[in-house]
User: Fold Serine carboxypeptidase-like 19 from Aegilops tauschii subsp. strangulata.
Amino acid sequence: MKLLRRTPTAGQRHPSPLLRLVPGLLLLLLISRPAAASASTVVTHLPGFDGPLPFHLETGYVGVEEETGAELFYYLVESERSPGADPVLLWLTGGPRCSGFSAFAFEVGPVKFVLAPYDGGLPQLVYNPLSWTKMASIIFLDSPVSSGFSYARDPKGCDDVGDYSSSLQVQRFLNKGYLVGNPMTDPKFDRNFQVQAAHGFGIISDQIYEAAMRNCKGDYINHVNQMCAEVLQTVKSLISEILDAHILYKKCVFSAPKPTNDATARKNLLEESIELNEAPGRPAIDCLTYGYYLSYFWMNNNMTRDALGVKQGTVGEWVRCKRELPYKFDMPSSIPYHLNLTMRGYRALVYSGDHDLQVPQLSTQAWIRSLNFSIVSDWRAWHLDGQAAGFTMGYANNLTFATVKSSWS
Assistant:
């Protein structure tokens, strides 16, 4: 078993259901495909992709709650190397309520959108040669229920969702192990190291940092006095000038819903699409998030849904993240769960993108230290193609921490 994970999708940073992970995602090490699939489709062609798919794709549903009729939708891509021998990963996208399609098309999956100006037609897809499916089979899961194409016959199944309930749904789907990256674990760690990280990144000055330390006395969450509140407001204002999920990236519109003024797009898509209510904000084409904009039109096209085997009438308008739906953050800290799993013998890899200010690697290192595990492997570089790709340290109980250089984890 392995423990590992990756951060959230751009523009979202909320605890993921299973381990309060960030807009990121949770990866579980598995040994087989979903066994309880209630409906599955082998997909050989996708609208907008030229020719047959050069990888094996299966989509389907797995029932996870009999009372509400909740079913989770998944995309299974078999390893392109040796599917019988390679590991199988379950990928959960954070948010919460964000579709696993984000990872499938924007992060580690086998396709990506052609970033061309949208003209009202069907967005085009191409093969991603850097997909993780080159060496592992991956199940991209729409979790919790009501994310992506996951649904419940009883509307209550979509409303009464939180950290614990969604974790149980995933456990019923398949639960063998996990991997985490830039995980949200506990506010006293996640948020309390943003000031130090902002100073290290050069976003706040020495004087502001010293004022924060002097007036806040190490507590940057609870404003202990008025001077602390004022300096933290200054810090917040300066951080707002950059993209905190990756400080080197351009700050762009993420997917703020607003009515589209693109009459051509509505007209051209009308016959082939479900009713479109609110297109996401249109970012500049050189933004990482432009693909999110294209995915809205691609996923709401009936040809796409037919190809993916989506059940008619289960989901209306598809949006990448359904933030308007209720979600209970009822797991205040996931640190006890990390401690429990590692003490039970699970191998764990926790990794952090080193330019992430939402969940800085400083905070991740701090909660790992709080486990009080002894160090078994000193801090050192790890390499890719002869170059340092990050730094790593090993702890007792088979726990490893690593940074990933300049990564949107």
The domain at 1-186+288-409 is CATH 3.40.50.1820 (Rossmann fold). The first strand starts at residue 2 and ends at 6.
